Amino acid sequence: MMPLLNWFRRNRLENDLERELRDHVDRRAADLVRSGVPELDARRRAAFELGGLAQVREEVRDVWLTRWLRDFAYDLRFSARSLRRSPSFTATAVLSLALGIGATSAIYSLVDQVILRVIPVREPERLVLIDWKGDPVASGFGSWNLMSYPICRDLQQHDRIFEGVLCRAATTVTFSTGGEHQPVAAEIVSGTYFHVLGVGAALGRVLGSDDDQPPRESPVVVLSHDFWKSQFAAASDVVGRKVLINQYPMTVVGVAAQSFRGVDVGEVPSLWIPASMSAQTIPGFSELLDRRTRWMQVLGRLRPGVTLDGARAELQPWFKAMLDEDIGRPGFPKITAGRRQRFLASTIALTPAPQGHSALRRRLSEPLWVLFSATAVLLGLACLNVAGLLLARGSARDREIRTRRALGASRGRIGRQLLADSVLLALAGGLVGVALAPVAMQTLIAFLPGAIAGHALHATVDARLMLFAFLVSLAAGILSGVAPAFQAGGHSLVASLGERSGTASGVRLRKVIVAAQMALSLVLVTGAVLFARTLTELMAKGPGFDTSSLVSFAVHPIRSGYSSAQASALIGRIQEGIRTSAIADASAVVRFPLLTGGSWNNQMTIQADRRITTDREVNMNAVTPGFFDTLGIRIVAGRGFDERDAAPVGEAGPRTTIVNEAFVRRYLDGRSPLGALVCVGSGPDARPDVEIVGLVTDFSYRGLREESEQAFFPMLDGREPGGIFYVKARSTPEQAAQVIRSIVHDADPALPISDLRTVDEQISRSLNTERMLATISGGFGVLALALSLVGLYGVMAFVVAQRTREIGIRIALGARRSAALWLVLRDAVVMIAAGAAVALPCLGALGRLVESQLFGVTATDPITVAGTTLLLAASALAAAFVPAYAASTVSPTDTLRAD
Amino acid sequence: MPSPRFPIPQGTLDMLILQILSLEPSHGYGIAQRLEQISQAVVQVNQGSLYPALHRLEQKGWLTAEWKPSDTGRESKVYSLTRTGRKQLGVEKDSWARLAGAVKLIFDEGNRT
Fold it and tell me: What is the rounded CA–CA span in Å between residue A297 and residue A236?
């Protein structure tokens, strides 16, 4: 470390040494003069006694910097000078590396932000996610790793294993300070949350265990630092203010620490609300203390010294006992013997969670790793390109290198000089790359949904990214320099002096590099084509209904203090408003939105000629009459919903249902479903009493990829918490949106309207991951192709230049021009074939990595692979043809005269 | 007949410098003079290796240096021993004594036979 430090302060060291030596010589000279030596001789003798001042200085400098570092610094300086002399070479090399390093850094930044970065809490490495492995026999809502609140309370008792246990759930609430209502992201948390994470308050206090119980007695919220700044202008007297959460008054007790943004990188909460207030926070929710309702993630902090395995082993007996106890509790659902077995075989799972818990991470990790691997390949390609360029330059510099060797430079010394060239190029490339990275990141983030892009991910260059880019540049420099350096060290002095120009082994190495480039490009181009095909397949497939002029929006009156009966009435009024306005041809309301990834799902029991339980969950929805007409979904048999399907007064639950063709295919062997009875749920208790009255064609509910069994119930019972409207606009979507806003505003001026957009927009959003993969890998494919074609062209041109004389002689001796053409093209064909031979087996292995991201095409799809191979071969041959043609038109007399 | 002045053994210069500075802090020329006195008596010290050695010892943290005004009015870089330097001197003296003892033992053995 010391030598490195000295490098930066070498000017001061240099001055000091100068003064010190002058002092020595002065003193010695003075002594000598005193003993009778003449003044002039004295100084010279003083210097002579020291063995020469220049010599001493050199030796002291060696002490400061150590030899190799000094040499390397000189090498770098020499490289910089020689690179400045060939600006076009330098620019090409730096640009290749900048593209590779910039792309890698940009993707790494997202990988880091979404996947790798630990949350800013105390000792995050001791956090673990506690999850249920097996069948929990519970209903629930939320994303993944769901547990019930009582289990979290149970786990808090295990204080020999855990320092503390927290639970949390992400939600959206309607927030207001009295005026405008707005939806904001919130986190419902146990009172232990902040304590377990070790996060303090920037102002006031955070939540504590006092806020945990009893229900309803702690109407308090903690604001996030960002929300406090944006919503309250960082007011210092915010503590104690009253705010309305879903119209329920709560008190602000504090602001959380600035750096803390919750445990989920994808859903950054604006405020934290204690779980004891969940009934007010989630309208209609009263199952906080129910052991069979899972909706929260549970995280624990292990005590120091407790291992993951140790904790698991110690918790398992308790967990087993809890299962036995649960199954005997009153109200435990009646289940089949098989399911009972699965329930009792459940285990508790602990996984390290220093990065917190995130649904976004789960969704994006795979696409991001795919892109990251692709950038690594691209960077490899750029390195090969620079290696090729350096080799070409090495041939051009042959005279210089031979001269240096003749003057006594060792092979290692020259190799190191060439390595300094490539490291310097790579560092320059890295610098340009890092400058480009924020633009690339912005582009990447733009592919993601707006809410995430706005809060969670940032297109900034931080210290971590700088370090990453530096290391990558260094690695790239060494990688691209090692072949040329080795090459320069390789040939013997005598042999190289004997040769005419260039070296055979140099060309061979360059051919190997081009073949490797071909292989890497083939991998990238194939990947790009696969992702592009996936996107087009999905777009071509469509959602299975007519999306033109279809506008959707959502209202959640229950979050604004409505009762469910009032909410249903309000939804009715809005629907009536749309019906009587001139904007809509048709409109309908559903309970759960389409194409957002989620659904209402459960197993069903079917009573046709025999009784069966569905082997997987059926996606369900409640829809108003006219829903299928509005979306243009064909009713294949039976009828749509109408007033007949309304539940009679005093009777709850639907009496009729409509299923889709997939449902009939899977469970009724394609027979007519009309008249069959079904019900939601499984087990001996399930009583199928809902009649199937209609059959509709398949369409996408959760997302475009899915093919699922669906069942629809009439939305007529007047107890809806909210609804998602689908409006077939007669005018343009913009005009319709305007009218819709005024209709909702007329119904209730304070009611927030959310997700107002066209269904096409929604579809486009739902494909953002696919679009990101297709676009970016497409860009990489084009870059890769360009880089490798340039590499191929360069080598071919060089080979032709080298063999001009030979070709000239051949032609003079009567060889046909086509033979000369083939002589050169043969080389290119060998390189292309070698590249393909390496790449094709790799494609099979790499295919497995991306399989899950594909749709309508397999990773080893023969047409795609054959097509891209042909494309690559054709363009490579075209690139090789130019120099080959030049070779075939060589004039024998000219070439022979040239020497 | 061996020369009365033999060249200083490799690595001993560092020890000599530490020893000289353990008596009192001094500037480079002062150390050189002390070395000169020693060399006239027994060993031959190459003056040129003095400054690299001083800088090496400073880098190891055994010496510290400071610019101080001296008797003649000019500033000189004065070296003094640090605590780790003093400890190092102890270590080197010790190992030197052991080496010398061991060599003597071997020679004594040789004389007896």
Answer: 33
Residue A798: its H or E element: helix A768-812
Is this structure's pTM higher than 0.80? no
Answer yes or no: do A56 and A189 share one domain: no
Domain check: are A27 and A152 in the same one? Answer: no
Q: Is A36 helix (H, G, I), strand (E, B) or coil?
A: coil
CB B82 within 8 A of CB B22: no
Q: Which of A60-74, A231-245, A713-727 has the lowest mean pLDDT?
A: A60-74
Q: Is residue A135 domain-shared with residue A264, that is, in the same domain?
A: yes
Count of domains forming chain A: 3
Which tens digits make up the pLDDT trace of A247-291? 889 999 999 999 898 998 878 899 999 999 988 888 778 888 899
pLDDT tens profile B31-51: 888 887 877 766 667 777 888
So what's the ipTM on this one? 0.85
CA A838, chain centre distance (Å): 29
> Does A144 reside within a domain?
yes
Range of the domain at B79: 6-112
Closest-CA distance, B30 to chain A, in angstroms, reads 9
Nearest CA distance, A36 vs chain B (angstrom): 18
Domain that holds residue A728: 550-765
Q: Assess B64–A contact: CB distance below 8 Å, yes or no.
A: no
Assess if residue B71 is contained within a domain.
yes
pLDDT tens-digit readout, A801-841: 878 888 888 888 888 888 888 888 888 899 999 999 999 98
Residues of A with Cβ-Cβ distance to B29 under 8 angstroms: 23-24, 27-28
Residue in A19, A35, A50, A70 to test binding to B, most B beta-carbons within 10 Å: A50
CATH code, domain carrying B55: 1.10.10.10
Rounded Cα–Cα distance for residues A479 and A381 (Å): 11
Based on the fold, state whether residues A37 and A128 are members of the same structural domain.
no
Task: Tell me the C-alpha distance between A373 and A98, whole Å.
Answer: 17
